[in-house]
Amino acid sequence: MQQSRLDKFFTIKKSATTSKLVDNNGDGSNDSTPSNQQTNKRLSTTEYENNKKLKRTKSDSPTINNENSSQINENFETNFSLNQFYLDKFLLILSSLVKYYKYLFDENELILFDKFQTLSASSQIIFIRLLMRRCKWLRRSTINYEISNVTNDEDSLTPLVEIGLLQDISSLDDLDAGLRLLTSDEMRDFSKRFHCQSKTNKSKKTSIENLKNLTNQYKSMFGSTTTTTNRNHLLFKELKRIIVNCYKISEDIRGLFFRMMLAYHPVALLSMDNLDQNAFTLLYKTFQITRGDLRLPWREDQISHEYLPFKTPEQLKLYQEAIDLETEYNQLEESKNTDELIKFYETYNEQWRAMIDSSTENEQLPGYFRRFSPDYIRARILSYLTEVLQRARRYDESIELIQYLLNRAIYNRNRRGKLWNRLALIQENYIKINGHQQCLNTIYEALQDPYVKLGDRLALCERARKLYSRPKSKGILLAEWITNEEENLIWTVPMPKEIEVTGCLLANDARMGKVTYTIQDPIDGSIQFCTVEQLAINHYRTKEDYTYGIHSEGAVIQTLIGLLFLDLIYTLPTPDLLIDIFQTEPLDFRTDAFYKSRQNQIDERISQLNSEENIQDIAEKNWDMYHLTMSSIVNWELFPTKSTLLGALKCLTSEQIKSISTYTFVHNQAVWKGFPDLFVWNPLLKKCKFVEVKSHNDRLSYHQIVWLNKLVEFKIDCEVCKVSAIGSKKSLQRTSSIIELD
User: Fold this and answer.
1) What's the N-to-C CA distance of the chain in angstroms?
2) Interaxial angle between packed helices 654-666 and 554-564, expressed in degrees from 0 to 180 and rounded to the nearest 10
3) Best-predicted range by mean pLDDT (229-243, 398-412, 474-488, 490-504)
4) Dihedral (C-alpha) 619, 623, 629, 635: value to the nearest 10 degrees?
């Protein structure tokens, strides 16, 4: 269960890693701590300058010439420095853990940490590199890391087995895992040895299935069928003879080191689920920070170690178990196996409810700390399971579970609108007796819930209006509040402006959600591939004189507005908002508490945005101060230069920026959902437009309708661009994913 989380932390993205290996003693490095100075010495310039790509060399490579031999020696030096960097970072985390969070681990675990620190450097490096790989059995021949001055890795692996960090072949008891270690040739010979080779399908997968299906009984030499020694014993004996030796990190050990990382990076490790990155991210970020490509918004001495949300080893273990179960649920959901999901629900439903109901300490915690409790994760998984029950047509159970979650207001606050909408939908469509009246009563209650955000509120209003206006409902359904203006619960939003755009359709893969159009380059007349969003950008370039265009959805408004407030966002009113050096925002940023705790400062900054000159000065100051700082608020890649961003800000008036700033901070949690797809602008004409791109078959979501309505309210130009296909045409060249229009 810990595998996917640890894979996210440890797996190496080689192409990204090797392209970034440069001089760490140059201009980019300004960290002068002793540990980093030691690391920088080991990561020397000469080892990186001539090795832009890191090449793995196999131990069984044939004899090579002097030139290749020289290259291999350089690779050995580079790889050793890379390994040493991993080791330094890992030992730094381990020493900090023992210093600040020793109370989160029991005596045996601390002894194991001590034993690890007494190992040779080569053993430590091999263990760390194995953590970076997938949690599975590995043959000795595949464990090959170019470690300087180490000629026999076996000597480095043996101590790891002796202290219990690794399992060797003596612990191999999974036939399927063992068979997968064989090569195709070995599998063929192995199948022949046991007379189970398929004559038609000779694939490795088929051979494994045939071997697994061997009967546990066989006839004796005398021809009678008797219960004899399990055939698996013979299979394992021959299998281990061929493999010779293999190694694996056990789930328990992997879980222990995951808890170590979880205690040291509780925020960054979990937030990687919302990023399209692999697990090497945090170690790679260390490289980027060392060489100056990324900057930390915080100092090390700002970290509040005493405010870590885990107070006992049991709390940390329970939290880890909850994370593992959420990972298991996500894997089942990806497979769309409803039967297995129902079994998952039946296994944990009552158990989790009892845990949630018996817990009282979470009520005293602020919302941004409550998300680190196992009950928070359990309640979140239960909210996902309401949809599973609906898909399985177990409507009564789904209704009961939704009502249970809605009665626990300290959990799922950002999902309450979705839960209310699901409850109303089930009652309207699947409850035969008095279902429509129940639906209206549910909506009435939901509209008075302060945690229901604007998009969900609009969806509830539309459902109530349509249901109550049906001819069959007159005189039967009781819902006078719908037409009562004094109640002021029903919210009406006008539909936004629409335009029509046509394009030549090249391909439409509905299964993959990909639609490809073609456009003609106005300069050289060539035909290019493009997405539907790029087709729309091309329309605004050629027809409406917008010179720049970005497809970024909510990231553009976060960047434009966020930059104007970045210094305030990184100012911490209380020390407990920073518990992880790799945090990209304060813990309370995406909660309602953020604006409440900084209202005076934010309101004062909004009042300062009263002229173009002030806006430009604040944006330029924050760009210079925080450029390339790790941030989930400002996307530095959207606007490649400061002048490009300042030009985009010029296209918005001070009143528009003040209005949108107030809205984004007051409705912090809901604002990031449903923002229009495109931002097009012309800095010379000082005009811009936000555009939602749709095909004729697509409908606007209620969150998108709310945002478009708000932009109209703020007097910002916006519209819906509906694209229709008129045919297909052969293409010669593909455009980039983000178009900068000349």
Assistant:
1) 50
2) 100
3) 398-412
4) 60
Q: 309-492 sits in which CATH class?
A: mainly alpha
Overall size of the chain counted in residues: 742
Share of the chain residues as helix, strand and coil, in percent rounded to the nearest 5: 55, 10, 35
On the 0-12 / 13-18 / 19+ scale of CB atoms within 10 A, 306 is exposed
Please give the torsion angle defined by the CA atoms of residues 315, 317, 323 and 325, in that order, rounded to the nearest 10 degrees. -120
- Residue 733: exposure state from Cβ atoms within 10 A (0-12, 13-18, ≥19): exposed
Domain boundaries, given as residue ranges, for the chain: 76-208+229-252, 309-492
**Region of poorest pLDDT, from 73-77, 132-136, 372-376:** 73-77
Nearest one of 408, 412, 356 to 380, comparing CA atoms: 412
Q: Which residues pair with 530 in a beta bridge?
A: 517
Supply the angle between the helices 599-608 and 654-666 in degrees, to the nearest 10.
Answer: 170
In eight-state DSSP terms, residue 312 is S
CA distances to 19, 102, 271, 630 from 305, rounded to whole Å, are 34, 12, 19, 21
Please name which of 119, 195, 129, 189 lies closest in space to residue 161, comparing C-alpha atoms: 119
Residues with Cβ within 8 Å of 123's Cβ and at least 6 positions away in sequence, in order, are 156, 157, 159, 160
Q: Assign 542 to helix, strand or coil.
A: helix
Q: How distant is the alpha carbon of residue 474 from its chain centre?
A: 48
Chain position carrying tokens 């595949």: 142
Which region among 127-141, 282-296, 422-436, 487-501 has the lowest average model confidence (pLDDT)? 282-296
Report the distance separating Cα 137 and Cα 245, nearest Å: 10
Q: Which two tokens stand for residue 450?
A: 């302060």
**Running DSSP on this structure, what letter comes out for residue 30?**
-
Decide: 649 and 692 in contact? Cβ < 8 Å.
no
Joined tokens for residue 432:
């035969």
**Token duo for residue 5:** 């989380």
How far is residue 262's CA from residue 249's CA, in Å, rounded to a whole number?
18
User: What pLDDT is attached to residue 147?
Assistant: 56
Return d(Cα 582, Cα 585) in angstroms, integer.
9
What's the alpha-carbon Rg for the chain, to the nearest Å?
A: 30
- 3-state DSSP of 69-118: HHHHHHHHHHHHHHHHHHHHHHHHHHHHHHHHCHHHCCHHHHHHHHHHHH
Rounded Cα–Cα distance for residues 324 and 255 (Å): 10
Give CA–CA dist 95/274, Å, rounded: 29
pLDDT tens sequence across 494-539: 888 999 998 888 766 554 556 788 887 767 777 888 888 999 999 9
CA angle 372, 377, 382 (to 5 degrees): 160
Annotate 649-695 with DSSP letters as a single string: HHTS-HHHHHHHHHHHHHTTTTTTSS--SEEEEETTTTEEEEEEEEE
Whether residue 148 has pLDDT greater than 60: no
Measure the CA–CA gap between 628 and 625, rounded to whole angstroms. 9
Please report which confidence band the pLDDT of residue 202 belongs to, taking 50, 70 and 90 as the band edges. low
> Which whole-number Å values give the CA distances from 12 to 7, 133, 284, 521, 647, in the listed order?
9, 8, 9, 40, 38
Tracing tokens 């050990």 back to the chain, one arrives at: 253
Token pair recorded at residue 696: 């004729």
Q: What is the pLDDT of residue 624?
A: 95
Higher pLDDT, 634 or 209: 634
Distance (Å, rounded) from C-alpha 264 to C-alpha 286?
A: 14
Residue showing tokens 């066989």: 218
Residues contacting residue 553 through CB under 8 Å, at least 6 positions apart: 675, 676, 677
Residue 265 to residue 101: CA distance in whole angstroms: 12
Number of helical (H) and strand (E) elements in the chain, helices listed first: 32, 12
- Reported pTM: 0.79
Distance CA 564, CA 552 (A): 19
